[in-house]
Predict the structure.
Amino acid sequence: MAIQSMTGFARARCADASNAYVWEIRSVNGKGLDIRLRLPPGLEHLEPEIRKKLGSAFARGNLQVSLAIAEGGQALEAVINEAALESVLALVDRLSSRIDAAPPRLDGLLNIRGMVELREPALDDEARGRRDAALGAGLDEAITALSEGRQQEGAALVAVLQDQLERVAALVEAVENSPARTPEAIRARLADQLAALLDAGAALDPDRLAMEAALLATKADLREEIDRLKAHVTAARALLAGSGPVGRRLDFLAQEFNRETNTICSKSNAAAVTAIGLDLKVLIDQFREQIQNLE
């Protein structure tokens, strides 16, 4: 399965001998797979199969699924809840000897909650089977359309992410090859700092100064962070070249990108390297924001 985004919309129409129906599925970003259904009365038995099909097709996203009878389709029939009606009438008879009140009107009885149920006309088993088969085919069509739409958007997102990843790689290379990181440049900066201290008249032991300078140079070394960033770039490229749900793994890599970049900025003792690190942070934030749209 190709990489998908988590946003999309699909609509599919289907029909049986009595009615036409319309499926609609809306998909937005989500941490997991959250399915919310809205079905006409009498079709609740379809819910397990609907959830099973959606769970097989999608790994993440908030899905709102609705099924409605199409305009011009056969109307639902109103059915009286006979048990509720008998109960209400019995109560009226029991209270009539105690309370002087007008008998209940028909409109009042029909407005009692649960007194009237709207449902499809009763079908025999064969007709119900044909209807459910038609609804299943319509749902399959809607799922396919949504999947195709999410894949198209996913392909566009992958292109954006690959471009951002190439820019990340270029900035990592710029850090690696920065003239400010050469031993000569580091030695020159330390020499200037030491000269400033000595000119200020500080009584400093030259041997101790040399030791501290070597320690500072070691702490400022960025080799480990650069190597890890390169490894993360390679891993992210592989994920974007693959298929299936990759959003969570890319989000983890984006966090690792950010962690290593923060370390580079904190360890850097050169303004040029710090500036590249800040550019990296901005780009990584943009990269991570786009990842939130991937399944």
About this structure: The chain has three domains: 8-75+121-151, 77-119, 152-291.
